[in-house]
Fold this sequence. Notes:
By secondary structure, this protein is an all-alpha fold. The chain has a domain at 55-170 and 200-269. The chain is built from 10 helices and no strands.
Amino acid sequence: MYPAYYKSGGIIVNWFENLNPIFQALIATTFTWGVTAIGALLVCCFKQINKKVLDTVLGFGAGVMLAASFWSLLSPALELSNNLGYIEWLLPSIGFSVGSLFVLFADKFLDKTISNKSSLKRSILLIAAITIHNIPEGMAIGVAFGGVMLGIPGMTLMSAIMLALGIGIQNFPEGAAVSLPLRREGFSCFKAFMYGQSSALVEPIAAVIGVVLALSVRSILPFLLSFAAGAMVMVVARELLPESVKENKNLSSLGITAGFILMMILDVALG
């Protein structure tokens, strides 16, 4: 006989597996939003957070997201593209490029908008920047759960869950990165927290859109998967890595390695 907690765990797993993918994605992105909120909540406890801890967490999240971008998104996109009779690399390459450019141009636009602004305006625009990054991340989670529902080769429930976990991990410092500067600008703890957690509210919305697109337009699923992969890699390259290696390159590098290996093991061995 299995212990009671194994039985209850199995019931929870079965319950989650049998949910509509829209609800699965909503639960997953509620988690990613919740981690953002926890990060933002630190504004009520600290004026600043240990930079070594933040850089290690950023590196770990970057490693998980890089691994997830390949095993959970890009690899299934390539295989599905081949199964649909397309040139195997063409649609994934286009989707990856468009996803990368989406983040790149969004950053360029915000950089021009932020330059020569007051520190308060820079803080407000930081919320907009992180919110924009959260849109493709939420969509990636939705597309992943939609792909599992469709039985796409290489896409498993475990890989979708791990993708959400990786995004959630890197959302933690993002919540703090929004709330702490606002607190320094004179916002109350409550207002700074509310602004910090609000940056991730777009993720559940984007996740639902991702699921609907994946389920209704199977022919463009390779594009959607690779779009999400390209956007995530660009976020890692432009935001997570540069920030995490400024002061603690070794800790960040170790975090990236640990995150990548963990995601690889869980996705390949358990997926």
